[in-house]
Amino acid sequence: MQWTVPLIALLVGALAGYLVRRAVGEAKIKSAEVEAKRILDDATKSAETKKREILVEARDEAGRLRDELEREVRERRQELQRTERRLINKEESLDRRQELFSQKEENLARQERALTEKSKALDSLHEQALKELERISGLSREEARERILGEVRDALKEETARLIRDAEAQAREEAEAKARSIISLAIQKCAADHVAENTVSVVELPNDEMKGRIIGREGRNIRALETLTGVDLIIDDTPEAVILSGFDPIRREVARLALERLVSDGRIHPARIEEMVEKAQKDVDALIKQEGEQAALNLGVHGLHPEIVKLLGRLKFRTSYGQNVLKHSIEVAHLAASMASEIGADVAVAKRAGLLHDIGKAVDHEVEGSHVAIGVNLLRRYRESHDVIRAVEAHHGDVEAQSIEAFLVAAADAISAARPGARRETLEMYLKRLEKLEEIANSFEGVDKSYAIQAGREIRIMVKPEKIDDLGAVRLARDIVKKIEKDIEYPGQIKVVVVRETRAVGYAK
Q1: pLDDT at residue 425 above 70?
Q2: pTM, full prediction
Q3: Are 394 and 406 in contact (CB under 8 A)?
């Protein structure tokens, strides 16, 4: 029982709490329903407002689009109207052109008919004219055609020959001008000295008493000196001087050095002479090698065989018509290289061949044969290049030149030899050479007169025209050239000119 009251109170409290919570929940639900209804009403009102606004905007946009469409339709319609007017105008223009073309076509048809009739008339007249021409000339149409074609061919041949002749003359003039320019430039670039030497050397003495010491007792000193050097000593009345005479310049130089040293030393006897000659020989050999090396070095020519270098040095003591051969060889190398650079040839080959072109003259007094053949053999022995050997072999025209460098070396050799003052000869030899030239020319049949001119570098020959024709003049010039080359020794080259003159004489009565 004691538990019943509390339990009932608890149940009553729980029931009361439940009722209170239910009342509160129902109140909240009603309040929420009211709020939801209010929100729904507000949303409905807002939606209606938006709907009205959208409808208004839609009507406005529809009106704007309709206006634009109507404006575009109006513009398209106007454009179509303009296009239609243009097409109508073009159609009218085409109609007018078609009418004009139809008229022109009719005119052309009439003209064509007229031309056809005239052409037939002209053909008929042409046939009549041809028949009349054949009757008058006595030639058929084919014969007349052949005759006209022949005349045209002859005229064309003559005109072609004239054009070719003019072109050749112009090319020859231009080539000569270019050659002169190249040669002048080459000569200006090279200014080598020309050394004229004799076959004797003079040794100065301190006094005339030295002559007796040089002669020695019973002439033993002078005999020993002449025997060892191969040079003749001329002791005459020339005051304080002894003359050394000999054709070998190297031996003469050895004798000169030995004698000068003997005179300076004062001790002159056969043993001392032998010693000095031997020493002078060694000094000259050293000088020869030095000169050869210096020449090659100055020209920039490398790779020469040592024996070739020595032979080059020997050329310092060799002269040709008074011109120092080493100086001449150096000048030829410079000239050939300069001309080769101007025309695009091989400068190295031209320079090397120019330096070595007269190498045979170093030993031509010891070996038989021309200096060209000797030089070629020496270069082949010492393994020089084939191009250099060909140029050396052809520099005097003994064989045909087979390269540009060979022509250049020959030209440079002629230029160096032909320079004023480069070579000299005695007046007696000069006069003999001129007389010999005229004598050779006058020995040929048909020659009327001959004149050696240009200091003996040209001979001009007048022939009798009734005995020698034009072809005969060419043959005569060739024959005279061959005889001059065979019978005369001369520096450079000689030009042979044969002149044949034909005169036509008439008398008016």
Answers
A1: no
A2: 0.49
A3: yes
